[in-house]
Amino acid sequence: MYSNKKPHVSLLLKNTYPLACLLSGLIVAQTIATAQVYFSNEKLYTQLKIITSAGYLAIPNQHIMDRLRDFGPAFYGGLFFTLSLGAALSMTAWGLSWIRIRVFPRKTWFLPCLLIPLPLALLLINFHGFVPFASAYFLFIPLAVFWTTRKLMPTTPRKHGLAFTIIHPLLILLLGISWVWQMDGNIFMSVRDNLLLTSTSGREINGFYYRYAFYPAEVFKPLDRKTLKTCLITGAESAGLKESLGKKLLENDYLPVENTPQVDLVLMRQGKEIQLQQHGNTEVSTTVPDFLAMGSIHLKEFSKKADRHVFFRKCVFLSLLTGLPAMGYLFLFLLVRLFSGLFLGPEASAYMASFVCFCMGLTLLTAVTPIQDRRMPGKTLDQMLESKDARERISALKKILDKRAEISNYDAYKKLLRSPHIEDRYWLTKTLAFSHNPETLKDLLAMLDDPSPNVVSMTFWALGFIGDRSVQEEILKRLPDSKVWYTQWYAYNALRNLGWMQTKLFFISDCESGSDPYLLSK
Hints:
Blueprint: H1 7-53, H2 62-65, H3 71-103, H4 110-115, H5 117-125, H6 132-152, H7 162-182, H8 187-194, H9 200-212, H10 214-220, E1 229-234, H11 239-251, E2 254-256, E3 265-270, E4 273-278, E5 281-287, H12 288-306, H13 310-340, H14 346-368, H15 381-385, H16 390-403, H17 413-417, H18 422-432, H19 440-446, H20 453-466, H21 472-478, H22 485-497, E6 505-508, E7 518-521
């Protein structure tokens, strides 16, 4: 009720009550997400302690391990779920609340219909086993938004003319079609290259993402996508058989450990059978010869059957594409309507907000859309590489990458190596993976010292792709000093692509020279 409030206060509440309703959902989402990521970090910390105690190389390294029990990584990592699934559920709950209150205010039959999606979602979330945190999102976020909407929504609806009722949804539809129609390839990469990396604030957001993205990702990754997994082998009396099973597991980054029940996989031999178990449940059964011959296939099957986050992952990814953009649009619309309402009438301010949001959406689309060939008539790749337009340079580098052409043959090569723009160095690094010039390997190794984690990560990828095993020692030497989990993941995958495999590790300290200890494999 707003009847007893001053006119300007009433106007403020009418324009901004959806923000308060959505914020209530986001606060609940952030609370759940922080707890979810924190407990995931605790579990990972325990696993890494087991891995290091067993003498293996741990990824992430000690720098990240020391932070896993802090509140910061859990809170910042939780923002990923808040701004994806939290935003989508808040928007959906607010929309359904609006329909219930405005369209069917006295229809008692609509309330049960409104609640049908909730138990259905909970059923799908827990179809492969109970997932408490994922269930909490779908239960508590809608309840919080329903309650705040019921309390804050004005009793008298805002009146809009028929023209606005048609024009506003039409503009939203046109904007959505424009984005879907124009964007090709990886939309997230396009946003990163053409929007985030082109400004100081954008680069800060990009750096923030790469510092904290792996914490929430660890929450719902299937086992076969995790970097390292722990395994306990039981029932293998023969030392030779145990060694053969251990080798097959190590080939798939399952690290055999001893005397601990806290493992991702228990490999149990019973008679002629090999059972792959988790939490006491047998997920896959096979024979010893079959496992030794096709262990990778059985481990992928085990990962699939043990995965409890299938539906949750799909919801998060879909929410990232829909929920966050929709909430951003609504926030911008409400803020523009609020400020324009100070000097325009209610109807005119609504038109103004719709027009501003539509133009902003098209502007962002133009900024992130890759340049097409028809917009660069007569330009050679050399000219594009020398262009002052970052999108032209990126487009040229992508063309060279697609052709697997020799990047060092282009005149702009040396200049691009020293480019101040992260996106230039990133795509240049990818092209170096296909270079046949022996001199470019030195340039590639020098890029391991690049200040951008994007470039360093892609450098590790390129080194692993090239296949020169002489760089293994350089990668191993850098891993303990890296402070970014994202680059460590790329470094480890590069080592694996180069044929390196986990073995027991030991520390060697050169006490006489005073150098720091470093890791060597046996």
